[in-house]
Design brief:
7-stranded mixed sheet; 395 residues; 2 domains; 42% helix; 20 strands; 9-stranded antiparallel sheet; disordered N terminus; flat
């Protein structure tokens, strides 16, 4: 059943208890897949983190700092550290908009006013285990730098998004060097902090020759549409920024008069760049910090995947108990707690196994932490069960 309103569609669906149970049983298979994937992610991540840390430590021990104004052929293939002023073979240009910049990178940022679908769902379990889900699809207008596919909307009629004629892009200057060393594009894509580059009448005229809509220039931003204060679907904003020429420091293998990734004994490669004249030791320290941050992010992702997997595996218990809605809620809360206990018990074990493979002493410590977390959650579970039991006579 669907109810339609202004830029909003409400859909109500009913699912029987047997259908929900069937979905939950199928979800067990999906849950097992999630658990296996999470184990793979956690174990792989520990190996990646250790190899990266060891590779960085190896590089820090052998890197040599060399002057930026002279290439020494004796250093070919060795890990070197160079700091100096960036230069390019010429300006970087965006031919679509007749704009040129003298910096290292020119960035074009494009936003289009589009429809966006927002979804909100509410679920109510009925006596007997059936489920009623009310889903509201709301359509709002928003600026987005990515195309939004309106064909996937629940109600595409009246909410059709235009094709993005222009999209955001980065352009790199040719022949970028630090001192006399050529810097590869792989190091320049994420380098530096971009600063605003206001558009001018030249860009305005270039855009007017390409589009049929009205075009204006507002505070250095190109606007395609009739009224910037009242945007309409399909209106477009285009702005520019550049990463200027500046000092930079590079750690990589010397390859002729340029750089290439340096292979370490752990199977990783080293290729670092930092704005400014930065000592090699500081660059390696920052790289180690980034590796630690990435390790914890991937650990969190792996743990969440495992928690979701155990929740799917245990979901049939909650569905069976939902014949009486209140009982189903209690069992559902219990299965979530059990899933948390399982995740707290298994995720550290997987992490520890990864460390045991490379660093046994650290792995033993991680196992101890996991055992302590599991004991704490089990104690909490017993306390909650005892509290429910003591409350039964009063009810």
């Amino acid at each position: 059943m669907e109810e339609r309103g202004i830029d909003q569609v409400t859909e109500v669906t009913n699912t029987s208890w047997f259908a929900r149970l069937g979905q939950a049983v199928v979800g067990v298979i999906m849950g097992l897949v999630f658990i296996m994937v999470s184990i793979g992610v956690l174990f792989w991540n520990e190996g990646r983190a250790i190899r990266t840390a060891q590779g960085l430590a190896e590089g820090e021990g052998i890197v040599r700092s060399v002057p930026a104004d002279k290439v020494d052929p004796a250093n070919n293939g060795r890990l070197i550290h160079v700091g100096g002023r960036l230069s390019t073979a010429g300006p970087v240009a965006d031919p679509d908009f007749a704009i040129r910049a003298s910096g290292v990178r020119l960035e074009r940022h494009v936003e289009v006013y589009q429809w966006k679908e927002e979804t909100h769902s509410e679920t109510r379990t009925r006596l007997g285990g059936g489920e009623e889900r009310t889903t509201t699809y709301k359509y709002v207008r928003t600026w987005s730098d990515k195309p939004i596919d309106s064909d996937r909307f629940k109600e595409p009629r009246g909410h059709t998004n235009p094709v993005m004629v222009y999209q955001s892009r980065d352009l790199l200057a040719a022949g970028t060097r630090v001192g006399v060393y050529a810097v590869p594009n792989s190091l320049l894509h994420g380098f530096g902090e971009a600063r605003r580059l206001p558009a001018t009448e030249a860009q305005l005229n270039a855009l007017r020759n390409r589009v049929e809509k009205p075009v204006s220039l507002n505070d250095g931003v190109l606007y395609v549409g009739r009224d910037p204060s009242q945007p309409a679907i399909g209106d477009m904003r285009i702005s520019f920024s550049e990463v200027p020429l500046q000092d930079a420091s590079v750690v990589a293998a010397q390859s002729g008069a340029g750089f290439s990734p340096f292979p370490t004994n752990t199977g990783t490669t080293l290729e670092l760049i930092s704005p400014g004249i930065v000592p090699a030791k500081v660059m390696f320290q920052h790289a180690q910090e980034e590796n630690a941050t990435m390790t914890w992010v991937l650990r969190l992702i792996g743990a969440i995947l495992m928690l979701v997997g155990f929740s799917f595996v245990l979901r049939p218990l909650a569905v069976v108990g939902s014949v009486i809605p209140l009982l189903g809620d209690v069992i559902g809360a219990g299965t979530l707690l059990v899933a948390m206990v399982c995740t707290a018990a298994i995720a550290p074990v997987v992490i520890a196994l990864g460390w045991l493979w490379y660093r046994p002493l650290v792995g033993i410590g991680v196992l101890a932490v996991g055992a302590a977390a599991t004991w704490g959650l089990m104690k909490l579970l017993r306390a909650r069960a005892a509290a429910r039991k003591s409350a039964l006579p009063a009810t």
